[in-house]
Amino acid sequence: MDAGRMEPGGTWSSRLLEDISSTDSVVLLLSESVASSAGNSAEIQTLASESRSRDIDVVPVLLEEIEIPSALQGIVAIDLSKEGALGVSRLIVRLLGAKAIDFQKISPQAFEKMTLDLLVAEGFETSAVPDSEVGDRGYDSVAHKGSETWVVQAKHYSQSRLSVNLIRRALLQMEDQAPPGANLIFVTSAQPTSVALEFLHESSRSRRVVIWDRVRLEQMLLRHPPILEEYFSSSGRGSVQ
Q1: Rounded to 5 degrees, what angle do the CA atoms 229, 231, 233 make?
Q2: How many domains is the chain built from?
Q3: Residue 200 sits in which domain range?
Q4: Residues 71, 217: Cα–Cα separation, whole Å
Q5: Is residue 98 part of a domain?
Q6: Cβ contact 78:94 at 8 Å
Q7: What is the largest CA-CA distance in the chain?
């Protein structure tokens, strides 16, 4: 916030609310002196409240080893006091959001691991299929949520568009090997064509079939910043083999 742009008679709180309303992200630099100030505590509370009501991403950045203010509990912080350059990389990815997501920069193995992490973050309990059995079973992992069982196949394609033929082959293999009553989650870094989406809709008549395509994956990653940072920051696991 620029104090030089304060209107005569204006208050920090009113200016804070005005600036928050016109932004998508707010970086909050926290030191011991900032966090312990009574005046700053009130402003942090205002910031946290407004960010939740306006769907603004607040990014607490710890400059020292301090306890995160109670108003910010539950918000993922970046700890520069411990992470250094890695923390800076995480901050850049966090601020770039979807612009930082480039699936072509991560390996197929990392894509599969990212899928497992997203499943857990979305409330599934997962178990990976041993590498020696993946080819035989036609899927990578089994996930459970409530009373439902899902088999999951993650495919990291080089092309940006996903044809109906590719989806048909993948789903037929999953259906042939899936346990009775299991639903299907097909995860892909590509975007299905309109014909492929129609095929998926038709396939859902016999059992539930869900696709996590590129757009949906981007939305999930933005909901779970630690996973976004883990796989797409320069020091993350994106190239894991």
Answers
A1: 50
A2: 2
A3: 103-232
A4: 29
A5: no
A6: yes
A7: 72
Output the pTM of the full model.
Answer: 0.63
CA distances from 73 to 7, 49, 78, 223 (A): 33, 12, 13, 16
Whether residue 92 lies inside any domain: the answer is no
pLDDT in tens, 88-111: 877 887 777 767 888 988 999 999
180-225: pLDDT as tens digits:
889 999 999 988 887 887 787 777 766 788 889 888 898 888 888 8
Dihedral angle computed from the Cα positions of residues 92, 98, 100 and 101, in that order, rounded to the nearest 10 degrees: 140
Same structural domain for residues 7 and 125?
no
